[in-house]
Specification:
By secondary structure, this protein is mainly alpha-helical. Helix content is about 65%, strand content about 0%.
Length: about 200
């Protein structure tokens, strides 16, 4: 366990240095359908949680962190110069934290309510089924599921859910979804916070 705590301290130092760097001038920019501001805030929320809990995360936290890691790899590959360095550092920190998975965690860190919320969000998106494939592939919309779950988990504003849905349908799915539908789905997911 002492070795683990030392590793946590090293990650804390890495993250401290990372937070001293200004967020690159990419506000509102998306890479392959990934909103850079959202992936930054989602990753930062989980890193902060990991550090505050002295190297512990729930299974569901790690599950979302894996998704952040996958998105960050895509982002880093597509960016250049300072933005690439910024997100490379973030990718490195997230990758090191993933290395803690299944080591030194107690059952107290497991929060099954997040698994329940994940399944409920997936059901909402599958019921919506914007491209009509949910009856054949139940995980088609899991990218949106993970991202909207991260909004709830990290206590971000409701509007972030709306932006996730709008950005992903527009850029990754190349669809134009009407405002009323986006707001309705956003509200349904937001209502899961206290359930």
């Amino acid at each position: 366990m002492e070795h683990d705590l030392q590793d946590v301290k090293e990650i804390q130092l890495l993250y401290n240095r990372h937070t001293e760097a200004p967020f690159p001038a990419t506000q509102g920019l998306e890479v392959m359908g990934i909103d850079l501001a959202l992936i930054d805030s989602d990753s930062a929320g989980l890193i902060a949680k990991f550090l505050s809990q002295k190297g512990h995360l729930s299974q569901d936290d790690f599950r979302i962190l894996h998704h952040c890691f996958s998105d960050l790899k895509v982002v880093v590959k597509e960016l250049e110069s300072e933005p690439r360095l910024y997100f490379s550092n973030l990718l490195n920190i997230v990758g090191q934290i993933i290395g803690f998975e299944n080591t030194g965690r107690s059952t107290e860190d497991f929060k099954p309510e997040w698994e329940t919320k994940f399944q409920r969000i997936r059901q909402i998106l599958n019921d919506w089924d914007p491209i009509g494939v949910a009856d054949m592939v139940d995980d088609e919309y899991d990218t949106m599921t993970f991202r909207t779950l991260a909004v709830i988990m990290n206590d971000k504003p409701q509007e972030n859910i709306y932006f996730v849905l709008k950005d992903y349908t527009k850029n990754a799915m190349e669809m134009s979804v009407d405002e009323e539908t986006l707001r309705r789905i956003t509200g349904s997911i937001w209502d899961l916070r206290n359930r």
